[in-house]
Amino acid sequence: MILSTQDLNILCQIAIKAAKQAGALINSYVDKNVTIQNKVAADSLASQVVTEVDVKAQGTILEVLSPTIEKYDLALLTEESVDDKSRFEKEYFWCIDPMDGTLAFTEKTPGYAVSIALVSQSGESQLGVVFDPVTHTLYHAIKGEGAFKNHEVWNPNLSTSGKSSFTLQMDRTFLNNDNFDFFLKELERYAKDLGISELNIQKQAGAVLNAIWSLDKAPSCYFKLPKTTPGGGSLWDFAATACIISEAGAYGKSFDGSPLDLNRSDSTFMNHKGVLYASDKNTATKIQSLLS
Q1: What is the pLDDT of residue 47?
Q2: First-last CA distance in the chain
């Protein structure tokens, strides 16, 4: 079943409803003590932490989305459930992270969000919905129809001209990278060449809001380096933001410049090619040159 633009718009509105309901559930736990567990995942703490809230948020989302699975013949991939591989059999699949940035949530700091995407079997994001429960901000996009923020057309200012600061959105694990000090110095030099005097580092958020903030705080970048071990984020960490980034006119690709592989056949991790989001192509090229 090939979905029409009208179908995608209908499904996007349903995903928005699901994301907001999950966000409301997450907010209801902000001032409560929650059960924190560790799951089998990659080697970073952020990828291993899971709470009862993640599971309950997923249940809330699936309650809203489940009728669409049969009606539109969709598959399903979610962070808190086993991958049943149905995403290789259907034309499209829901790709869901009920609460990205769980570590930030447990630390009671901003940086967590609900993320829902619809991805084609070929690995292209058709729609993306992100809801930030802390600020109650909704971001969404449909392929070919532009990006939206709180239901208003969103054309973030991605130009480097006239900007006073450059923001590096990063994972805490990058602090331990052997090239971190060199990279930081070279990035500061790049910013100065653009006439930008201040380099900000943001390292508390999950992958979803790191990507969104790379638009909100442009010029900016966020990346996951390729590596041989499992990790580098998962499909559900980037499926929704891939659509939003693209429709906003920013740069979002694998680290080598190839299209993001959002339906990887042998894993749900993104470590094989990495991910690079940047507010503009020149910044992306610079990041590649410094870290390749």
Answers
A1: 57
A2: 40
Question: From the centroid of its chain, how far is CA 19?
Answer: 14
**Tokens, residue 117:** 């995407």
Q: Residue ranges of the domains in the chain?
A: 5-153, 165-291
Once rounded to an integer, what is the mean pLDDT over residues 253-259? 97
- Fold of the domain built from segment(s) 165-291: D-Maltodextrin-Binding Protein; domain 2 (3.40.190)
Express the helix, strand and coil content of the chain in percent, nearest 5 each: 35, 25, 40
Task: Please state the φ and ψ torsions of residue 13, each to the nearest 5 degrees.
Answer: -65, -35
Whole-number Å distance between alpha carbons of 189 and 160: 14
Residues with Cβ within 8 Å of 238's Cβ and at least 6 positions away in sequence, in order, are 207, 211, 260, 262, 270, 275
| The pTM of the whole model exceeds 0.70 | yes
Whole-angstrom distance, CA of residue 281 vs CA of residue 113:
26
What is the average per-residue pLDDT within 53-60?
Answer: 96
Residue 85, C-beta contacts closer than 8 angstroms, at least 6 positions apart: none
Q: Element (H or E) spanning 252, and its range?
A: strand 251-253
- Establish whether the linkage from the previous residue to 219 is cis, with ω within 30° of 0: yes
CA distance 117 to 289: 31
Domain 5-153: give its CATH code.
3.30.540.10
Is residue 169 within 8 A of residue 34, CB to CB? The reply is: no
